[in-house]
Design a protein that fits this description.
single chain, mainly alpha, 88% helix
Amino acid sequence: MALKKEALKAEILARKTVRFQRDAVYSFFEDVGEAVSMTLETFKWIFKGAISAKDTVSHMVEVGWRSFPIITLTSFFTGMVLALQVGSSTSNLFNEPVYVGAITGFSLVIELGPVLTAIVVTGRIGAAITAELGTMKVTEQLDALSTLGTNPVKYLAVPRFLACFFMLPLLTALANIIGIVGGLVVTMRTWNVSPAIYWSNVLEFMGVGTFMHGFVKSFFFALIIAAVACYKGFTTKGGAEGVGKATTSSVMLSMIFILVSDYFLTAVLVAMGIK
């Protein structure tokens, strides 16, 4: 009898686990569908020309100019670390640091520049967008906008989308240059390689396609950051605690989507010959 009870409990627990997993999957795809719907609505307003120039410029300053110091710091030291590692590895293999500029430049422009910039912007701007919109949601300010006949997506999402879409690629391009300069500093100081040789390696092995590979990725990363941040902000529940959870979830999901999409974008760009 006891064995039957234990078996029944185990079966009930297993069913609950399966039901929970199934509901979690349904909820995830439902959230994805709603986020895509909100993104399409945002594009609809953009194409209709419903753009507030003042709000858009204000958010562009926030996304671009105020993110520039942390992007500079991150990319500069990333380039320094790359040059240090590449120089050490090539010195062990060839008894001298060779192609430090080329390898550092490739690593930054194709991969590390766009990805690290997107992650930094996610932590700074994506979290801020979610927290701001989430606070407006739980304090019923979004409901007040709807009551007054103002569409929240048109009024709040459009300028944030445009700011991310235009400023993240620019930040990525600047991060690439700053990272390469950081690599130059280490190459000169640590490996005693002249700047002329370093820049010669960078320019000789890198073309327009190399730059465009990472630059194109940054547009998609910008859309991911804006879409996830705005959607999580618009759907926040549970007061101040809910705002915190929504912000954490927004940053986590944005980073996951950026890293996952990076693989597929790389595969597509390589297949198209942009490498």
